[in-house]
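Researcher: We plan to redesign the surface later, but first we want a full-length starting point. Tokens attached.
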């Protein structure tokens, strides 16, 4: 598979034949080293298209039920993000707002926009049309269709007709200049996939998984009150730390520009964040291949949000790691800190969370 490295992030260009097998393609990308960085860009081959006609998305009928206003508080590269839910609107009206004088992006190249983003992050509160359930891939798209990815996560949950919004079902994201996804790893430290259907680029930052714990310790020191209330507060997706601060504390951070028509893949336990350069429409979900299971077994959840996604790993270990099942089961039984919920089977836990109405937006991509 053809690939190159740009600013520490690998960019892959699979052939049309390689692109047809999603799971094999992801495994090859992982084998070639992208998992060490935690993020990879994938450029689809010529001839592949996600949707033939996007004009129907902007007819006024397609709605964003709960756009959020993102308020940032802080200074000198350390910020907390607060999301205020606003009245629902259409994609057409959201785009008009994003292109208005108040919200339009400043002039300049990608580097100029990045500098202006960090300089003015606390000014001109952006809106984000995040976490909109649904997919806009054409039904006849089979390769890399986010609404229908081959995934051991999907296989397990869909066998029992379980849907966890945004986790094994797709979400749409309508961005504008400065709309932000704060530092986070995915629910249960899963893989994620993000595709920009049309519009302006995104800037992504990523920290290699092997340095994730260092970021957690740094964030705990900078935001002690948040840490005191929840040891996994970064899962709230409310913490924004600039690359300059990370560099000062020797935490490696890579950056990549995500253009329309391209995919981004995040790997298990890779902290990532970023912002949009202007109006765009992206689609995202989570997925898993077998290498995720060891991360899933160790994944930590938020201590204070009752709607944190929790998936019991028993069925995955039994099916894909049968030689480890007895040891894993014994380890679980000896864990004195296990909650009552840990004794529930996978499907009961998944159903519990899929039926909840989330009080705060995931705002993850």
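Model: Full-length starting sequence:
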């Amino acid at each position: 598979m053809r690939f190159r490295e740009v600013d520490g992030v690998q960019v892959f260009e699979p052939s049309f034949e390689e692109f047809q097998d999603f799971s094999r393609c992801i495994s090859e990308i992982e084998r070639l080293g992208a998992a060490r960085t935690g993020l990879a860009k994938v450029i689809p081959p010529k001839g592949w298209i996600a949707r033939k006609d996007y004009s129907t998305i902007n007819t006024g009928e397609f709605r964003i039920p709960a756009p959020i206003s993102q308020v940032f508080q802080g200074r000198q590269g350390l910020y907390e993000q607060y999301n205020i839910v606003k009245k629902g609107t259409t994609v057409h009206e959201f785009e008009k707002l994003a292109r208005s004088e108040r919200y339009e992006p400043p002039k300049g190249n990608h580097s100029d926009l990045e500098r202006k983003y960090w300089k003015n992050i606390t000014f001109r509160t952006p809106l984000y049309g995040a976490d909109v359930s649904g997919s806009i891939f054409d039904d006849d798209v089979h390769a890399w269709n986010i609404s229908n990815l081959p995934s051991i996560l999907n296989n397990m949950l869909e066998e029992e007709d379980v849907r966890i919004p945004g986790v094994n079902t797709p979400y749409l994201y309508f961005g504008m200049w400065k709309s932000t996804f704060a530092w986070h790893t995915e629910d249960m430290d899963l893989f994620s996939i993000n595709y920009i259907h049309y519009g302006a680029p995104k800037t992504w930052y990523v920290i290699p998984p092997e340095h994730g714990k260092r970021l957690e310790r740094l964030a705990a020191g900078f935001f002690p009150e948040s840490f005191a209330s929840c040891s996994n507060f970064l899962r709230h997706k409310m913490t924004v730390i600039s690359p300059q601060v990370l560099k000062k504390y020797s935490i490696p951070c890579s950056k990549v520009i995500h253009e329309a028509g391209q995919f981004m893949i995040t790997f298990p336990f890779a902290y990532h964040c970023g912002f949009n350069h202007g109006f765009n429409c992206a689609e995202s979900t989570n997925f898993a291949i077998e290498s995720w299971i060891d991360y899933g077994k160790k994944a930590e959840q938020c201590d204070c949000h009752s709607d944190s996604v929790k998936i019991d790993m028993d069925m995955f270990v039994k099916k894909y790691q049968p030689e480890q099942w007895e040891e894993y089961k014994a380890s679980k039984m000896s864990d004195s800190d296990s909650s009552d919920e840990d004794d529930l089977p996978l499907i009961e836990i998944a159903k519990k969370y899929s039926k909840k109405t989330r009080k705060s937006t995931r705002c993850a991509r």
